[in-house]
Amino acid sequence: MGLAWNGTALEVTRREFPTNRGGLCRKGWTAAELLVAPDRLTSPLMRQTRGEPLRPVSWETAIARVVSTIARVQEEHGRDAIGVFGGGGLTNEKAYALGKFARVVLRTKHIDYNGRFCMASAAVASQRAFGVDRGLPFPVADIPAAEAILLVGANPAETMPPLVQYFDEQRTRGGRLIVADPRRTATAAMASTHLQLAPGTDAALANGLLHVAIRDRLIDGEFIAARTSGFDAVRQVVASYWPDRAERITGVPAKKIVEAAHFLGEATTAMVMTARGPEQQSRGVDNVLAFINLALALGHAGKPHCGFGCITGQGNGQGGREHGQKSDQLPGYRRIDNPAHREHVASVWGVHAADLPGPGRSATEMLGDLGEEGGVRVLLVMGSNLVVSTPNARTLQPRLDKLDLLVVADLFLSETAERADVVLPACQWAEEEGTMTNLEGRLLYRRAALAPPGDSRSDLQILALLAQGLGRGQFISDVPEEVFDELRRCSAGAVADYAGITYDRLRRGEALFWPCPSDAHAGTPRLFLERFATRTDGPVFTPSSTRARPSNRTRSIRCT
After folding, report:
1. Alpha helices in 242-283 (DSSP H)
2. Considering only CA atoms, which of 469, 479, 418, 473 is closest in space to residue 62?
3. Distance CA 278, CA 202 (A)
4. Residue 336 CB-half CA count within 13 A
5. Which of 187, 343, 498, 557 holds its CA 20 to 30 A away from the CA of 330?
Protein backbone atom coordinates (compact mmCIF):
# COMPACT_ATOMS: atom_id res chain seq x y z
CA MET A 1 0.00 0.00 0.00
CA GLY A 2 0.97 3.63 -0.31
CA LEU A 3 0.19 6.63 1.87
CA ALA A 4 -0.81 10.06 0.57
CA TRP A 5 -2.29 13.38 1.70
CA ASN A 6 -5.55 14.11 -0.14
CA GLY A 7 -5.67 17.75 0.92
CA THR A 8 -7.62 17.17 4.12
CA ALA A 9 -6.47 13.84 5.52
CA LEU A 10 -4.07 10.95 5.09
CA GLU A 11 -5.34 8.09 2.97
CA VAL A 12 -4.12 4.71 1.82
CA THR A 13 -3.45 4.52 -1.91
CA ARG A 14 -3.37 1.63 -4.35
CA ARG A 15 0.03 0.20 -5.20
CA GLU A 16 0.71 -2.67 -7.56
CA PHE A 17 2.39 -5.57 -5.81
CA PRO A 18 2.79 -9.19 -6.94
CA THR A 19 0.81 -10.63 -4.04
CA ASN A 20 -2.28 -8.42 -3.73
CA ARG A 21 -2.14 -6.76 -7.18
CA GLY A 22 -3.26 -3.45 -5.70
CA GLY A 23 -6.08 -4.90 -3.59
CA LEU A 24 -6.57 -4.49 0.13
CA CYS A 25 -9.08 -5.63 2.72
CA ARG A 26 -11.23 -3.16 4.63
CA LYS A 27 -8.66 -3.00 7.40
CA GLY A 28 -6.00 -2.01 4.89
CA TRP A 29 -8.04 0.70 3.20
CA THR A 30 -8.89 2.29 6.57
CA ALA A 31 -5.42 1.87 8.14
CA ALA A 32 -4.57 5.55 7.71
CA GLU A 33 -7.39 6.54 10.06
CA LEU A 34 -5.57 4.89 12.97
CA LEU A 35 -2.52 7.07 12.42
CA VAL A 36 -4.44 10.19 13.42
CA ALA A 37 -7.00 8.65 15.77
CA PRO A 38 -7.75 11.04 18.66
CA ASP A 39 -7.29 8.30 21.28
CA ARG A 40 -3.73 7.37 20.26
CA LEU A 41 -1.40 6.94 23.20
CA THR A 42 1.28 9.64 23.06
CA SER A 43 2.93 9.44 26.49
CA PRO A 44 3.62 6.72 29.08
CA LEU A 45 0.89 6.02 31.63
CA MET A 46 1.35 4.57 35.10
CA ARG A 47 -0.47 3.87 38.34
CA GLN A 48 1.18 3.36 41.70
CA THR A 49 -1.33 0.86 43.08
CA ARG A 50 -4.19 -1.20 41.69
CA GLY A 51 -7.46 0.67 41.65
CA GLU A 52 -5.86 4.03 40.96
CA PRO A 53 -6.35 5.58 37.52
CA LEU A 54 -3.54 5.57 34.98
CA ARG A 55 -1.77 8.94 34.82
CA PRO A 56 0.76 10.38 32.33
CA VAL A 57 4.39 10.13 33.43
CA SER A 58 7.77 10.65 31.81
CA TRP A 59 9.64 7.86 30.05
CA GLU A 60 12.31 8.02 32.76
CA THR A 61 9.70 7.41 35.47
CA ALA A 62 7.98 4.59 33.59
CA ILE A 63 11.20 2.78 32.68
CA ALA A 64 12.55 3.16 36.22
CA ARG A 65 9.38 1.56 37.63
CA VAL A 66 9.61 -1.40 35.27
CA VAL A 67 13.34 -1.91 35.78
CA SER A 68 13.22 -1.70 39.58
CA THR A 69 10.30 -4.13 39.81
CA ILE A 70 11.98 -6.65 37.47
CA ALA A 71 15.18 -6.48 39.51
CA ARG A 72 13.31 -6.98 42.79
CA VAL A 73 11.14 -9.83 41.56
CA GLN A 74 14.04 -11.69 39.95
CA GLU A 75 16.07 -11.37 43.13
CA GLU A 76 13.17 -12.71 45.22
CA HIS A 77 11.72 -15.33 42.86
CA GLY A 78 14.36 -16.07 40.21
CA ARG A 79 14.86 -15.01 36.63
CA ASP A 80 11.94 -17.06 35.31
CA ALA A 81 9.49 -14.99 37.36
CA ILE A 82 9.47 -12.53 34.43
CA GLY A 83 7.41 -13.33 31.35
CA VAL A 84 7.23 -11.83 27.86
CA PHE A 85 4.27 -12.11 25.51
CA GLY A 86 4.51 -11.02 21.87
CA GLY A 87 2.34 -11.03 18.77
CA GLY A 88 2.08 -11.99 15.14
CA GLY A 89 1.70 -8.37 14.10
CA LEU A 90 5.22 -7.36 15.12
CA THR A 91 7.78 -6.83 12.37
CA ASN A 92 10.51 -9.42 11.94
CA GLU A 93 12.96 -7.09 13.66
CA LYS A 94 10.74 -6.63 16.69
CA ALA A 95 9.82 -10.31 16.97
CA TYR A 96 13.52 -11.19 16.83
CA ALA A 97 14.53 -8.49 19.32
CA LEU A 98 11.77 -9.51 21.72
CA GLY A 99 13.03 -13.09 21.81
CA LYS A 100 16.60 -11.93 22.32
CA PHE A 101 15.50 -9.46 25.01
CA ALA A 102 13.80 -12.24 26.97
CA ARG A 103 16.72 -14.66 26.76
CA VAL A 104 19.73 -12.35 26.94
CA VAL A 105 18.55 -9.27 28.87
CA LEU A 106 15.96 -10.80 31.20
CA ARG A 107 17.51 -14.30 30.96
CA THR A 108 14.09 -15.86 31.40
CA LYS A 109 12.72 -18.92 29.65
CA HIS A 110 9.19 -17.53 29.70
CA ILE A 111 8.35 -16.04 26.33
CA ASP A 112 5.57 -16.92 23.92
CA TYR A 113 3.15 -15.14 21.61
CA ASN A 114 -0.43 -15.09 20.34
CA GLY A 115 0.41 -17.24 17.33
CA ARG A 116 -0.06 -20.15 19.73
CA PHE A 117 -3.78 -19.49 19.42
CA CYS A 118 -3.68 -19.38 15.61
CA MET A 119 -0.95 -21.16 13.72
CA ALA A 120 0.55 -23.60 16.20
CA SER A 121 -1.30 -26.71 14.98
CA ALA A 122 -0.42 -26.16 11.34
CA ALA A 123 3.17 -25.26 12.21
CA VAL A 124 3.71 -28.46 14.19
CA ALA A 125 2.04 -30.59 11.51
CA SER A 126 4.07 -29.06 8.68
CA GLN A 127 7.34 -29.45 10.58
CA ARG A 128 6.50 -33.06 11.38
CA ALA A 129 5.58 -33.93 7.81
CA PHE A 130 7.87 -31.73 5.72
CA GLY A 131 10.59 -30.61 8.12
CA VAL A 132 9.68 -26.95 7.58
CA ASP A 133 6.84 -24.58 8.37
CA ARG A 134 6.18 -22.00 5.67
CA GLY A 135 2.51 -21.13 5.22
CA LEU A 136 2.50 -21.72 1.47
CA PRO A 137 5.43 -23.55 -0.15
CA PHE A 138 4.54 -21.77 -3.38
CA PRO A 139 3.66 -18.19 -4.36
CA VAL A 140 -0.02 -17.28 -4.48
CA ALA A 141 0.42 -16.59 -8.21
CA ASP A 142 0.60 -20.39 -8.66
CA ILE A 143 -2.96 -20.89 -7.39
CA PRO A 144 -4.76 -20.26 -10.70
CA ALA A 145 -2.79 -23.06 -12.40
CA ALA A 146 -4.08 -25.72 -10.00
CA GLU A 147 -6.76 -27.85 -11.65
CA ALA A 148 -8.31 -28.63 -8.27
CA ILE A 149 -8.05 -26.99 -4.84
CA LEU A 150 -9.37 -28.21 -1.51
CA LEU A 151 -9.78 -25.29 0.92
CA VAL A 152 -10.54 -26.43 4.48
CA GLY A 153 -11.92 -24.16 7.22
CA ALA A 154 -11.00 -20.92 5.46
CA ASN A 155 -13.17 -18.00 4.41
CA PRO A 156 -10.85 -15.65 2.48
CA ALA A 157 -13.79 -13.95 0.77
CA GLU A 158 -14.41 -12.20 4.10
CA THR A 159 -11.09 -12.49 5.95
CA MET A 160 -8.54 -12.06 3.14
CA PRO A 161 -10.33 -10.52 0.11
CA PRO A 162 -7.20 -9.78 -2.00
CA LEU A 163 -6.49 -13.52 -2.11
CA VAL A 164 -9.86 -14.33 -3.66
CA GLN A 165 -8.83 -13.03 -7.08
CA TYR A 166 -6.52 -16.05 -7.43
CA PHE A 167 -9.32 -18.50 -6.67
CA ASP A 168 -11.57 -16.63 -9.09
CA GLU A 169 -8.93 -16.95 -11.79
CA GLN A 170 -8.52 -20.63 -11.00
CA ARG A 171 -12.23 -21.28 -11.56
CA THR A 172 -12.26 -19.09 -14.68
CA ARG A 173 -9.57 -21.37 -16.13
CA GLY A 174 -11.84 -24.34 -15.51
CA GLY A 175 -10.39 -25.43 -12.17
CA ARG A 176 -12.42 -26.94 -9.35
CA LEU A 177 -12.57 -25.19 -5.98
CA ILE A 178 -13.73 -27.50 -3.18
CA VAL A 179 -14.49 -25.81 0.15
CA ALA A 180 -14.91 -27.80 3.37
CA ASP A 181 -16.67 -25.72 6.00
CA PRO A 182 -19.55 -26.29 8.47
CA ARG A 183 -21.03 -22.96 7.40
CA ARG A 184 -22.11 -21.77 4.00
CA THR A 185 -19.70 -18.88 4.00
CA ALA A 186 -19.14 -16.40 1.20
CA THR A 187 -16.21 -18.57 0.10
CA ALA A 188 -18.28 -21.76 0.22
CA ALA A 189 -20.97 -20.06 -1.84
CA MET A 190 -18.56 -19.41 -4.71
CA ALA A 191 -17.05 -22.92 -4.63
CA SER A 192 -17.59 -25.62 -7.23
CA THR A 193 -18.29 -28.06 -4.39
CA HIS A 194 -19.16 -27.34 -0.77
CA LEU A 195 -18.46 -30.14 1.72
CA GLN A 196 -20.57 -29.02 4.69
CA LEU A 197 -19.07 -31.15 7.43
CA ALA A 198 -20.12 -31.24 11.08
CA PRO A 199 -17.81 -29.21 13.35
CA GLY A 200 -14.95 -31.29 14.72
CA THR A 201 -14.99 -33.96 11.99
CA ASP A 202 -12.20 -32.61 9.78
CA ALA A 203 -9.85 -35.58 10.15
CA ALA A 204 -12.68 -38.00 9.36
CA LEU A 205 -13.39 -36.10 6.14
CA ALA A 206 -9.72 -36.20 5.13
CA ASN A 207 -9.54 -39.92 5.92
CA GLY A 208 -12.71 -40.54 3.93
CA LEU A 209 -11.29 -38.73 0.93
CA LEU A 210 -8.06 -40.69 1.17
CA HIS A 211 -9.99 -43.99 1.52
CA VAL A 212 -11.71 -43.29 -1.79
CA ALA A 213 -8.44 -42.26 -3.42
CA ILE A 214 -6.83 -45.57 -2.41
CA ARG A 215 -9.88 -47.66 -3.31
CA ASP A 216 -10.27 -46.08 -6.73
CA ARG A 217 -6.53 -46.11 -7.49
CA LEU A 218 -6.16 -42.35 -7.59
CA ILE A 219 -3.02 -42.26 -5.45
CA ASP A 220 0.46 -41.74 -6.88
CA GLY A 221 2.27 -44.94 -5.94
CA GLU A 222 5.49 -43.94 -7.64
CA PHE A 223 5.69 -40.66 -5.69
CA ILE A 224 4.82 -42.41 -2.43
CA ALA A 225 7.52 -45.04 -2.91
CA ALA A 226 10.24 -42.68 -4.11
CA ARG A 227 9.77 -39.62 -1.94
CA THR A 228 7.79 -40.44 1.24
CA SER A 229 7.73 -42.75 4.25
CA GLY A 230 5.08 -44.13 6.60
CA PHE A 231 2.26 -44.63 4.10
CA ASP A 232 1.37 -48.20 5.14
CA ALA A 233 0.35 -47.09 8.64
CA VAL A 234 -1.92 -44.41 7.19
CA ARG A 235 -3.40 -46.88 4.71
CA GLN A 236 -4.41 -49.12 7.61
CA VAL A 237 -6.12 -46.29 9.48
CA VAL A 238 -8.12 -44.93 6.55
CA ALA A 239 -9.25 -48.42 5.50
CA SER A 240 -12.13 -48.07 7.95
CA TYR A 241 -13.31 -44.70 6.58
CA TRP A 242 -15.39 -45.94 3.68
CA PRO A 243 -17.72 -43.26 2.24
CA ASP A 244 -20.87 -44.34 4.08
CA ARG A 245 -19.08 -44.33 7.43
CA ALA A 246 -17.42 -41.00 6.64
CA GLU A 247 -20.88 -39.63 5.85
CA ARG A 248 -22.24 -40.81 9.22
CA ILE A 249 -19.37 -39.08 11.02
CA THR A 250 -19.12 -35.87 9.01
CA GLY A 251 -22.62 -35.36 7.64
CA VAL A 252 -21.17 -34.91 4.13
CA PRO A 253 -23.02 -37.13 1.62
CA ALA A 254 -20.96 -40.12 0.52
CA LYS A 255 -21.54 -39.17 -3.10
CA LYS A 256 -19.90 -35.77 -2.51
CA ILE A 257 -16.93 -37.35 -0.76
CA VAL A 258 -16.35 -39.67 -3.71
CA GLU A 259 -16.80 -36.82 -6.17
CA ALA A 260 -14.32 -34.56 -4.35
CA ALA A 261 -11.75 -37.34 -4.08
CA HIS A 262 -11.94 -37.88 -7.84
CA PHE A 263 -11.65 -34.16 -8.59
CA LEU A 264 -8.44 -34.03 -6.55
CA GLY A 265 -7.06 -37.38 -7.62
CA GLU A 266 -7.69 -36.99 -11.34
CA ALA A 267 -6.25 -33.47 -11.49
CA THR A 268 -2.76 -33.12 -12.89
CA THR A 269 -2.12 -30.22 -10.51
CA ALA A 270 -3.87 -29.74 -7.17
CA MET A 271 -3.48 -28.00 -3.84
CA VAL A 272 -4.80 -28.68 -0.34
CA MET A 273 -4.97 -25.73 2.06
CA THR A 274 -6.13 -25.47 5.66
CA ALA A 275 -6.85 -22.51 7.92
CA ARG A 276 -8.15 -21.87 11.41
CA GLY A 277 -11.22 -24.14 11.06
CA PRO A 278 -9.44 -27.50 11.46
CA GLU A 279 -6.50 -26.01 13.35
CA GLN A 280 -8.19 -24.36 16.32
CA GLN A 281 -9.41 -27.60 17.83
CA SER A 282 -8.13 -29.89 20.58
CA ARG A 283 -6.83 -32.25 17.88
CA GLY A 284 -5.74 -29.55 15.47
CA VAL A 285 -2.36 -31.13 14.66
CA ASP A 286 -4.04 -34.44 13.78
CA ASN A 287 -6.56 -32.64 11.58
CA VAL A 288 -3.86 -30.88 9.59
CA LEU A 289 -1.77 -34.05 9.30
CA ALA A 290 -4.78 -35.87 7.86
CA PHE A 291 -5.04 -33.35 5.02
CA ILE A 292 -1.26 -33.46 4.49
CA ASN A 293 -1.61 -37.25 4.15
CA LEU A 294 -4.20 -36.71 1.43
CA ALA A 295 -2.00 -34.30 -0.53
CA LEU A 296 1.01 -36.62 -0.27
CA ALA A 297 -0.86 -39.76 -1.28
CA LEU A 298 -2.17 -38.04 -4.39
CA GLY A 299 1.35 -36.96 -5.27
CA HIS A 300 0.43 -33.30 -5.04
CA ALA A 301 3.64 -32.12 -3.37
CA GLY A 302 7.10 -31.26 -4.58
CA LYS A 303 5.77 -30.38 -8.01
CA PRO A 304 4.89 -27.10 -9.77
CA HIS A 305 1.41 -25.75 -9.03
CA CYS A 306 0.86 -28.39 -6.33
CA GLY A 307 1.29 -28.64 -2.61
CA PHE A 308 -0.13 -28.48 0.88
CA GLY A 309 -0.36 -25.01 2.38
CA CYS A 310 -1.68 -23.21 5.42
CA ILE A 311 -3.30 -19.80 5.04
CA THR A 312 -1.60 -17.55 7.59
CA GLY A 313 -3.82 -15.06 9.38
CA GLN A 314 -2.03 -12.23 11.21
CA GLY A 315 -0.13 -9.45 9.47
CA ASN A 316 3.25 -11.04 10.19
CA GLY A 317 1.95 -14.41 11.24
CA GLN A 318 4.70 -16.13 9.23
CA GLY A 319 7.70 -14.00 10.18
CA GLY A 320 6.43 -13.59 13.73
CA ARG A 321 6.79 -17.30 14.40
CA GLU A 322 10.19 -17.78 12.78
CA HIS A 323 12.56 -15.72 14.88
CA GLY A 324 12.30 -16.59 18.53
CA GLN A 325 8.97 -15.57 20.06
CA LYS A 326 7.96 -19.18 20.69
CA SER A 327 9.02 -20.69 23.98
CA ASP A 328 10.98 -23.52 22.36
CA GLN A 329 12.45 -21.69 19.39
CA LEU A 330 15.44 -19.58 18.40
CA PRO A 331 15.73 -17.44 15.24
CA GLY A 332 15.43 -19.19 11.88
CA TYR A 333 13.35 -22.02 13.40
CA ARG A 334 16.35 -23.23 15.37
CA ARG A 335 15.50 -25.22 18.49
CA ILE A 336 16.44 -23.87 21.89
CA ASP A 337 17.06 -27.42 23.18
CA ASN A 338 19.48 -28.27 20.35
CA PRO A 339 23.11 -27.76 21.50
CA ALA A 340 24.38 -26.86 18.01
CA HIS A 341 21.57 -24.38 17.50
CA ARG A 342 22.23 -22.77 20.88
CA GLU A 343 25.94 -22.45 20.10
CA HIS A 344 25.30 -20.74 16.78
CA VAL A 345 22.84 -18.18 18.14
CA ALA A 346 24.87 -17.55 21.29
CA SER A 347 27.95 -16.82 19.19
CA VAL A 348 26.04 -14.16 17.23
CA TRP A 349 24.62 -12.69 20.42
CA GLY A 350 27.99 -12.61 22.17
CA VAL A 351 26.99 -14.77 25.13
CA HIS A 352 27.80 -18.28 26.32
CA ALA A 353 25.38 -20.96 25.11
CA ALA A 354 25.18 -22.28 28.67
CA ASP A 355 23.78 -18.92 29.79
CA LEU A 356 20.78 -19.14 27.47
CA PRO A 357 17.65 -20.41 29.23
CA GLY A 358 16.04 -23.67 28.19
CA PRO A 359 12.58 -24.15 26.66
CA GLY A 360 9.80 -22.28 28.41
CA ARG A 361 6.14 -23.07 28.76
CA SER A 362 3.64 -22.50 25.98
CA ALA A 363 1.42 -19.43 26.02
CA THR A 364 -1.55 -21.16 27.64
CA GLU A 365 0.63 -22.76 30.30
CA MET A 366 2.52 -19.55 31.06
CA LEU A 367 -0.68 -17.52 31.35
CA GLY A 368 -2.34 -20.23 33.42
CA ASP A 369 -0.40 -19.52 36.61
CA LEU A 370 0.28 -15.79 36.45
CA GLY A 371 0.95 -14.34 39.89
CA GLU A 372 1.26 -17.76 41.52
CA GLU A 373 4.28 -19.08 43.37
CA GLY A 374 6.59 -20.56 40.76
CA GLY A 375 4.80 -18.72 37.97
CA VAL A 376 5.32 -15.45 36.16
CA ARG A 377 4.97 -12.41 38.44
CA VAL A 378 5.90 -9.62 35.99
CA LEU A 379 4.55 -9.73 32.44
CA LEU A 380 5.59 -7.57 29.47
CA VAL A 381 3.04 -7.60 26.64
CA MET A 382 3.97 -6.27 23.21
CA GLY A 383 1.80 -6.52 20.11
CA SER A 384 -1.08 -8.44 21.68
CA ASN A 385 -4.37 -7.83 23.46
CA LEU A 386 -4.61 -10.78 25.83
CA VAL A 387 -7.92 -9.86 27.40
CA VAL A 388 -9.60 -10.14 23.99
CA SER A 389 -7.64 -12.81 22.14
CA THR A 390 -6.84 -15.39 24.80
CA PRO A 391 -9.00 -18.52 25.12
CA ASN A 392 -11.01 -18.42 28.35
CA ALA A 393 -10.22 -14.71 28.65
CA ARG A 394 -12.57 -14.29 31.61
CA THR A 395 -10.37 -16.52 33.74
CA LEU A 396 -7.28 -14.64 32.58
CA GLN A 397 -8.39 -11.23 33.83
CA PRO A 398 -8.17 -12.00 37.57
CA ARG A 399 -4.78 -13.64 37.00
CA LEU A 400 -3.48 -10.46 35.39
CA ASP A 401 -4.57 -8.58 38.50
CA LYS A 402 -2.45 -10.90 40.68
CA LEU A 403 0.78 -9.89 38.95
CA ASP A 404 3.35 -7.78 40.74
CA LEU A 405 3.54 -5.72 37.54
CA LEU A 406 1.81 -5.75 34.16
CA VAL A 407 3.54 -3.74 31.42
CA VAL A 408 1.83 -3.20 28.06
CA ALA A 409 3.27 -1.51 24.97
CA ASP A 410 0.44 -0.50 22.66
CA LEU A 411 -0.93 2.14 20.31
CA PHE A 412 -4.21 2.56 22.16
CA LEU A 413 -5.55 1.89 25.62
CA SER A 414 -6.64 -1.65 24.80
CA GLU A 415 -8.58 -3.88 27.16
CA THR A 416 -5.28 -5.34 28.36
CA ALA A 417 -3.58 -1.94 28.64
CA GLU A 418 -6.46 -0.72 30.80
CA ARG A 419 -5.46 -3.34 33.40
CA ALA A 420 -1.74 -2.55 33.21
CA ASP A 421 0.41 -0.86 35.83
CA VAL A 422 2.61 0.72 33.16
CA VAL A 423 1.52 1.50 29.59
CA LEU A 424 4.16 2.43 27.02
CA PRO A 425 3.00 4.26 23.83
CA ALA A 426 4.22 2.51 20.68
CA CYS A 427 4.53 3.47 17.02
CA GLN A 428 2.37 2.26 14.16
CA TRP A 429 3.08 0.76 10.74
CA ALA A 430 3.74 4.02 8.88
CA GLU A 431 5.92 5.46 11.63
CA GLU A 432 8.79 2.97 11.64
CA GLU A 433 10.95 0.99 9.25
CA GLY A 434 10.94 -2.78 9.17
CA THR A 435 10.19 -6.01 7.35
CA MET A 436 7.43 -8.57 7.43
CA THR A 437 7.13 -12.05 5.92
CA ASN A 438 3.87 -12.99 4.24
CA LEU A 439 2.19 -16.38 3.89
CA GLU A 440 4.31 -17.19 0.83
CA GLY A 441 7.60 -16.70 2.70
CA ARG A 442 8.13 -13.44 0.78
CA LEU A 443 9.94 -10.61 2.58
CA LEU A 444 8.18 -7.23 2.53
CA TYR A 445 10.06 -4.02 3.25
CA ARG A 446 8.22 -1.13 4.90
CA ARG A 447 9.55 2.43 4.93
CA ALA A 448 8.80 4.97 7.63
CA ALA A 449 6.54 7.65 6.18
CA LEU A 450 5.63 9.75 9.22
CA ALA A 451 7.09 10.86 12.53
CA PRO A 452 5.39 9.19 15.51
CA PRO A 453 2.96 11.41 17.44
CA GLY A 454 3.79 12.97 20.79
CA ASP A 455 6.30 11.05 22.83
CA SER A 456 5.53 7.58 21.48
CA ARG A 457 8.46 5.27 20.70
CA SER A 458 9.03 2.24 18.50
CA ASP A 459 8.96 -1.18 20.14
CA LEU A 460 12.69 -1.49 19.39
CA GLN A 461 13.33 1.78 21.23
CA ILE A 462 11.25 0.54 24.16
CA LEU A 463 13.23 -2.69 24.38
CA ALA A 464 16.50 -0.77 24.12
CA LEU A 465 15.47 1.57 26.95
CA LEU A 466 14.54 -1.36 29.18
CA ALA A 467 17.80 -3.16 28.35
CA GLN A 468 19.81 -0.05 29.22
CA GLY A 469 17.96 0.29 32.51
CA LEU A 470 18.73 -3.33 33.33
CA GLY A 471 22.43 -2.81 32.62
CA ARG A 472 22.47 -4.88 29.41
CA GLY A 473 21.93 -2.20 26.81
CA GLN A 474 24.77 -3.47 24.63
CA PHE A 475 22.62 -6.40 23.51
CA ILE A 476 19.63 -4.52 22.03
CA SER A 477 19.81 -2.08 19.11
CA ASP A 478 16.93 0.25 18.25
CA VAL A 479 18.01 0.63 14.59
CA PRO A 480 15.85 -1.69 12.44
CA GLU A 481 18.46 -2.39 9.78
CA GLU A 482 21.07 -3.28 12.39
CA VAL A 483 18.61 -5.66 14.03
CA PHE A 484 17.76 -7.23 10.69
CA ASP A 485 21.42 -7.75 9.82
CA GLU A 486 21.89 -9.58 13.12
CA LEU A 487 18.76 -11.63 12.44
CA ARG A 488 20.30 -12.64 9.10
CA ARG A 489 23.43 -13.93 10.86
CA CYS A 490 21.39 -15.80 13.44
CA SER A 491 19.26 -17.51 10.78
CA ALA A 492 22.19 -18.41 8.50
CA GLY A 493 22.17 -22.13 7.76
CA ALA A 494 18.81 -22.67 9.47
CA VAL A 495 15.53 -23.78 7.91
CA ALA A 496 14.28 -20.20 7.62
CA ASP A 497 17.54 -18.82 6.25
CA TYR A 498 17.49 -15.04 5.71
CA ALA A 499 21.27 -14.67 5.35
CA GLY A 500 21.14 -13.42 1.75
CA ILE A 501 18.26 -10.99 2.24
CA THR A 502 19.29 -7.38 2.82
CA TYR A 503 17.52 -4.06 3.12
CA ASP A 504 19.34 -2.91 -0.02
CA ARG A 505 17.97 -5.82 -2.05
CA LEU A 506 14.46 -5.27 -0.72
CA ARG A 507 14.64 -1.53 -1.37
CA ARG A 508 15.56 -2.31 -4.98
CA GLY A 509 12.37 -4.29 -5.26
CA GLU A 510 13.82 -7.79 -5.50
CA ALA A 511 11.26 -10.55 -4.89
CA LEU A 512 12.97 -12.54 -2.13
CA PHE A 513 11.54 -15.64 -0.49
CA TRP A 514 13.31 -17.61 2.22
CA PRO A 515 15.40 -19.68 2.28
CA CYS A 516 17.91 -17.28 0.72
CA PRO A 517 21.32 -18.38 2.00
CA SER A 518 23.62 -15.87 0.26
CA ASP A 519 23.76 -12.49 -1.41
CA ALA A 520 24.05 -14.25 -4.77
CA HIS A 521 20.99 -16.45 -4.14
CA ALA A 522 17.71 -15.46 -5.80
CA GLY A 523 15.55 -16.82 -2.98
CA THR A 524 13.16 -19.80 -3.03
CA PRO A 525 9.60 -19.02 -4.12
CA ARG A 526 8.80 -22.76 -4.49
CA LEU A 527 9.91 -25.23 -1.86
CA PHE A 528 10.45 -28.97 -2.34
CA LEU A 529 10.85 -29.02 -6.14
CA GLU A 530 14.30 -30.60 -5.76
CA ARG A 531 14.19 -32.02 -2.25
CA PHE A 532 12.20 -31.92 0.96
CA ALA A 533 13.54 -30.48 4.20
CA THR A 534 13.22 -33.70 6.20
CA ARG A 535 16.38 -35.58 7.17
CA THR A 536 15.38 -38.52 4.95
CA ASP A 537 14.64 -36.23 1.99
CA GLY A 538 11.01 -37.25 2.05
CA PRO A 539 7.84 -36.12 3.80
CA VAL A 540 6.40 -38.37 6.48
CA PHE A 541 2.87 -39.76 6.59
CA THR A 542 1.31 -39.72 10.06
CA PRO A 543 -1.83 -41.72 10.92
CA SER A 544 -4.67 -39.48 12.09
CA SER A 545 -7.70 -41.15 13.63
CA THR A 546 -10.83 -39.47 14.97
CA ARG A 547 -11.17 -40.51 18.58
CA ALA A 548 -12.70 -37.14 19.46
CA ARG A 549 -16.45 -36.87 19.07
CA PRO A 550 -17.84 -34.31 16.63
CA SER A 551 -19.17 -31.19 18.32
CA ASN A 552 -22.27 -29.16 17.59
CA ARG A 553 -20.57 -26.09 18.97
CA THR A 554 -17.50 -24.20 17.84
CA ARG A 555 -15.33 -21.84 19.81
CA SER A 556 -14.24 -18.59 18.24
CA ILE A 557 -10.73 -17.39 19.06
CA ARG A 558 -9.73 -13.98 17.83
CA CYS A 559 -6.11 -13.04 17.26
CA THR A 560 -4.94 -9.47 17.68
Report:
1. 243-250, 254-266, 276-279
2. 469
3. 6
4. 25
5. 557
Of 279, 310, 341, the last residue of a domain is 310
In a domain, 517, yes or no: no
| Burial class (CB within 10 angstroms; exposed 0-12, middle 13-18, buried 19+) of 457 | buried
Note the helical H segments in 160-230. Answer: 161-172, 186-189, 202-215, 221-227
- State how far the Cα of 544 lies from the Cα of 560, in Å rounded to an integer: 31
Between strands 307-310 and 10-13, the pairing is unpaired
Which residue range is the domain that position 242 belongs to?
120-310
The reply to whether 533 falls in a domain is: no
Residue 549 to residues 200, 210, 542, 546, Cα–Cα distance (Å): 7, 20, 20, 7
End-to-end CA distance of the chain: 21
pTM of the model: 0.92
User: How far apart, in whole angstroms, are the C-alpha atoms of residue 400 and residue 395?
Assistant: 9
* Full pLDDT tens readout for the chain, 560 residues: 666 666 556 777 767 777 776 666 666 767 777 888 899 999 999 999 988 999 999 999 999 999 999 999 999 999 999 999 999 999 999 999 999 999 999 999 999 998 888 777 888 899 899 989 999 999 999 999 999 999 999 999 998 899 999 999 999 999 999 999 999 999 999 999 999 999 999 999 999 999 999 999 999 999 999 999 999 999 999 999 999 999 999 999 999 999 999 999 999 999 999 999 999 888 889 999 999 999 999 999 989 999 999 998 777 888 888 999 999 999 999 999 999 999 999 999 999 999 999 999 999 999 999 999 899 999 999 999 999 988 888 889 999 999 999 999 999 999 999 999 999 999 998 899 999 999 999 999 999 988 999 999 999 999 999 999 999 999 999 999 999 999 999 999 999 999 999 999 999 999 999 999 999 999 999 999 887 766 555 788 988 866 544 444 333 333 33
Domains held by the chain: number: 3
DSSP output for 326-361: STTEEGGGEETT-HHHHHHHHHHHTS-GGGS-----
Q: Which DSSP category does 8 fall into?
A: S
Identify residue 208 by its one-letter amino acid code. Answer: G
Q: Quote the CA–CA distance of 505 and 40 in Å, as a whole number.
A: 34
518 in a structural domain = no
Q: Are 424 and 377 within one domain?
A: yes
Q: Are residues 87 and 22 in the same domain?
A: no
Shared-domain flag, residues 334 and 480: yes
- Asked whether the beta carbons of 110 and 327 are under 8 A apart, the reply is yes
d(Cα 336, Cα 327) in Å, to the nearest integer?
Answer: 8
Helix axes 459-469, 92-100, angle to 10 degrees: 20
* CATH number of the domain to which 275 belongs: 3.40.228.10
